[in-house]
Amino acid sequence: MAGSPRRAAGRRLLLPLLCLLVQVATAILFAVFVRYDHETDPALWHWGNHSNADNEFYFRYPSFQDVHTMVFVGFGFLMAFLQRYGFSSVGFTFLLAALALQWSTLVQGFLHSFHDGHIHVGVESMINADFCAGAVLISFGAVLGKTGPAQLLLMALLEVALFGINEFVLLSLLGVRDAGGSMTIHTFGAYFGLVLSRVLYRPQLEKSKHRQGSIYHSDLFAMIGTIFLWIFWPSFNSAPTTLGDGQHRTALNTYYSLSASTLSTFALSALVGGDGRLDMVHIQNAALAGGVVVGTSSEMMLTPFGALAAGFLAGTVSTLGYKFFTPVLESKFKVQDTCGVHNLHGMPGVLGALLGVLVAGLATHEAYGDGLQSVFPLIAEGQRSARSQAIYQLFGLFVTLMFASVGGSLGGLLLRLPFLDAPPDSQCYEDQMYWEVPQEQEDEAQGPLRAEELDTQA
Amino acid sequence: MAGSPRRAAGRRLLLPLLCLLVQVATAILFAVFVRYDHETDPALWHWGNHSNADNEFYFRYPSFQDVHTMVFVGFGFLMAFLQRYGFSSVGFTFLLAALALQWSTLVQGFLHSFHDGHIHVGVESMINADFCAGAVLISFGAVLGKTGPAQLLLMALLEVALFGINEFVLLSLLGVRDAGGSMTIHTFGAYFGLVLSRVLYRPQLEKSKHRQGSIYHSDLFAMIGTIFLWIFWPSFNSAPTTLGDGQHRTALNTYYSLSASTLSTFALSALVGGDGRLDMVHIQNAALAGGVVVGTSSEMMLTPFGALAAGFLAGTVSTLGYKFFTPVLESKFKVQDTCGVHNLHGMPGVLGALLGVLVAGLATHEAYGDGLQSVFPLIAEGQRSARSQAIYQLFGLFVTLMFASVGGSLGGLLLRLPFLDAPPDSQCYEDQMYWEVPQEQEDEAQGPLRAEELDTQA
Amino acid sequence: MAGSPRRAAGRRLLLPLLCLLVQVATAILFAVFVRYDHETDPALWHWGNHSNADNEFYFRYPSFQDVHTMVFVGFGFLMAFLQRYGFSSVGFTFLLAALALQWSTLVQGFLHSFHDGHIHVGVESMINADFCAGAVLISFGAVLGKTGPAQLLLMALLEVALFGINEFVLLSLLGVRDAGGSMTIHTFGAYFGLVLSRVLYRPQLEKSKHRQGSIYHSDLFAMIGTIFLWIFWPSFNSAPTTLGDGQHRTALNTYYSLSASTLSTFALSALVGGDGRLDMVHIQNAALAGGVVVGTSSEMMLTPFGALAAGFLAGTVSTLGYKFFTPVLESKFKVQDTCGVHNLHGMPGVLGALLGVLVAGLATHEAYGDGLQSVFPLIAEGQRSARSQAIYQLFGLFVTLMFASVGGSLGGLLLRLPFLDAPPDSQCYEDQMYWEVPQEQEDEAQGPLRAEELDTQA
């Protein structure tokens, strides 16, 4: 069928149809189910006779905006490190996140804030939806360059649903604490993407090897992503925590953890680098592992020292992962992980979950005082001991890994549907597959791609 | 006179003189008229025995900073898509906005907050001044690359004054609601710029055609602008609304609208693109139309579904505009619209005004409860029915279009003054006209421009 | 020893060892001394029975995030203007700031918030640590491209300590006011760096002259830094001021000052430029001088006019400095100032200190009302007259200059230690010294650097 007019027409219509279909379906579900909550509805808010200063907006919106920046600027530009895939990295991040936040509003709404037949929305639903978009973008990082936009849309649809269910099981059924999402976001997103990438394994991917690296300025664009992720990560972890000391402590712990992971990343990168030189891949990614590793525990009594130690460990593990484990992952396990999400989100996410087990297990009434109610309500109410909370935390990690693996497998099978038009092995990491690329650039490119080629190669 | 030393000296002095003159005049007017308001003056604030938490600063400053980012980062980099005009796009945005916010503080101050012989300033005047700068930058987008900095400064001086008057007529005299400025900012800025561009029509502009496109990395710089505009647009529309549920609901509606316009933009761009490929111009611009289209109505009871539907429509109309209407606008109407502001701000702005008419006309005491007073005070106080409010809203649109057209015509005539030193047709979209450009770049450029040429061509 | 295997091994281990050593030492000191303060500790916060809205987090965290953005994005990208030093500019900014904020938390903690044997941390310590990182990055700007990462780490360790002591002398012992740090941050950072650069003077630096300029896109990356510094400077100056009118007024004054310095910078740049053209170096830097010059006085009754006048002056002085003084500084004073920090931070910092002297000397009970207590507590309590406060302010400037000069000299001597592996004169401003640089870039570069060369040249 390759090269046939029917195929060309199919390609032309696939993405538009999918986008329009999803958008129309979402809009209908919004019309039926989604309503303003008592903080965004004028009648409800004014009926309550609240002071405006009490509106949740003023406590969480600045954090939300930082999270929003991380999702769209941070993830988008971080993935723009590839020399010929910047349009797709930033553009598909934009598309996937815009879809995920609508769809996730529905899924999370049905599971978390559905009452009287309606989903109620406000700044908390915005934060949660952006968090879910973050998980989708982590998975995107694993398959970056090897999947078309139609495939990615389907992946997002599936992943958002499973993310919501996994999150519901952990937070609502198991009473697990995971404010910054070491488990629900990072572990889930990473292993979902990695398993999916395994199912989509391409033995001939080296045909696109020459496009898999960066160029000088693409690395600088990627650093925009890195730095915005780094500076706003304290807001990410603290966005959904309890008000007052909760948000404050969470931001502080994350800030310390990140600063330590930055130092250990520079140290390890120079140590394992050729001739003592630093590697941009490590700096762009592993320096962020400090944010991931305290996702679960930064709201707890981690202590400033604990935050530094955790970040130090995460930066170390992540850098070593890029250097030594990523090649093995491809050669032995047949997992092609474009952005190394296993090193940035996978291992640090699991470490973060285990750190949460440890810190939860050490919780005492003494250390938390009356604040115990906010961080560990079940312990404060006497329904659980610290030790059993720790066991639940550990169980949450296993549930997450299971959901991610099964979901990623399903997702991989789904994305292998032939009409989804995956890029051929020789055209991976190439913007021209999906974008009008400015002409002079095409002339420069190694092996430019003519329109006829596109059809015959597919 | 071309090429004469006198001309060269004139060029050298024109911009400095204009800048200095404007700055000195503004400073004198500030000395005479501008004073701290009761929230920024220590004596007034402490005399009132307020709680610090009540200071407007804490309710609006985070939103202000997001707006500030949009104006300087968003607009500046969005316009940097041109291959050889990045310095001018970012630099003149910087200059024009820095001028506009001072000058607008005076104009808006005289019209809105002048009492006891003084203008009183604080965070609200900062937000309003940045909004006005936004309108100026929209107009800048229509004439980008075809006007020199001296022309742009004069344009800004005129436009800020007319913006203030139009805004005063709408908000204060007609009682029109337009928090996010679908009319006062987007419609006004777009049609002011388009009419001005019409008056400055250049039949020989194709002499600069080769510089009118983007290159690979200039498109990525432009995406920095797009994404920052997109993520902070909820703050833009909500920055001046009433506190509490007002700001909260406005931000939420804008967030939904933008996510829908992103999906419809991707869908339409692929549908109308050659071979189903996406066009960066659409993604960079039309995806933002969702923010424009709810500028008037996002503080109202638009409902989440309404926001999605509006955004969907705006993204669709805007993308189709770029594909089909922009060429006609130039060939038939002789309007050369560099950034396509007609598609991003013009049509979505008018649609947004009409949507405001509709949603205002549907306002009921039931839907808004006691919040009606904040959104539609004249209806709440019984001075107007919802229907008559709708008619006023519609009238506001016509007033805006009139002010913009007349103002744009005047502006165009003003900018044709010969001593303002417009770039020649062959040197449009070229940074070297105004900037020292690093040498190695000149070598690469198509048809580099030597200093002698500059004089003889003018 | 050059080129020997021992030297190569040394280079390879130097940076890792330093990073790890510092990180381990810091972590141990954190374990012993650093504790949550009463706003981040759950037991302490809940024991106090506070309203969550009272938590300092909600008053200062948005400002902190803006400061954080300035430090990591602003400084990092501003210094990326060099054509071949973008990785180092952004990367070493990242490393130095991550180190400085930990180390500064300790130094400032011992001096400012040490009680009961512990340092107490929260959002205020985060802001102060970021401020100190800012001073370190200013000094980095003076020696950019001429120092390796190991040298920079040692510089940061020394500078952070001296910064803390100088700040303690000024704010705590002398009762000097300097919220935005015209003295403690800008003057100190600039002259520390300049004196250090003098000690490290390289007579043969012209061997690297060809890499000292920018290229087209590196100038655009630098503008990202400039614009983020510019938009968030109001938050920088207001982050540590008293709540309520204090923060509000400080932000407003800074906003005006910056807008005026932008206009005067454009005016002067065109005036002194060849053929009336603008110079990116001026726009990127001098336009920011308005933020520096009101660092001390923006919390005082500077008045909006005063802010405009100060900014105007600062932009003028700074631009003229770049044009006329920087060459003299190198040729006559043997100070090689890569980023021109003398023009952006040095002179405007001193001007800002003097402006603080003036505005403090004019303070009256009438003008400040009960707010005098917040701005000038010693005057309000009758311990000082406005005039004597002014004299203390002036004395603070001298103390700062002395600390900076002595500290910079010491730092310079320290950095000349031979094992610190400074780059050779011919390899300054070159990322390949420290980074794996993507291959295709190396081919393009003028005089690429092979691994063997590195060893033999050192």
UniProtKB/TrEMBL annotation, chains A, B, C:
Principal localisation: membrane
- Single GO molecular function: ammonium channel activity
Q: Is Transport tagged as a keyword?
A: yes
Name a single GO biological process: transepithelial ammonium transport
**Which catalysed reactions does the entry list for this protein?**
methylamine(out) = methylamine(in); CO2(out) = CO2(in); NH4(+)(in) = NH4(+)(out)
What the entry lists under Pfam families is as follows: Ammonium_transp (PF00909)
Which residue intervals make up region (Disordered)?
437-458
Q: What Gene3D superfamilies does the annotation carry?
A: Ammonium transporter AmtB like domains
State the membrane topology.
Multi-pass membrane protein
Give the highest taxon in the source lineage. Answer: Eukaryota
Q: Which keywords does UniProt give here?
A: Ammonia transport, Cell membrane, Glycoprotein, Membrane, Transmembrane, Transmembrane helix, Transport
Coiled coil segments of this chain: none
Domain (Ammonium transporter AmtB-like): give its ranges: 27-416
Looking at the UniProt record for this protein, which Gene Ontology cellular component terms does it annotate, in alphabetical order?
Answer: basolateral plasma membrane; spectrin-associated cytoskeleton
Q: Name the family.
A: Belongs to the ammonium transporter (TC 2.A.49) family. Rh subfamily.
Q: Describe its assembly.
A: Interacts (via C-terminus) with ANK2 and ANK3; required for targeting to the basolateral membrane.
| Protein task | Ammonium transporter involved in the maintenance of acid-base homeostasis. Transports ammonium and its related derivative methylammonium across the basolateral plasma membrane of epithelial cells likely contributing to renal transepithelial ammonia transport and ammonia metabolism. May transport either NH4(+) or NH3 ammonia species predominantly mediating an electrogenic NH4(+) transport. May act as a CO2 channel providing for renal acid secretion.
Q: What is the protein name stated in its UniProt record? A: Ammonium transporter Rh type B
Q: Which organism is it from?
A: Rhinolophus ferrumequinum
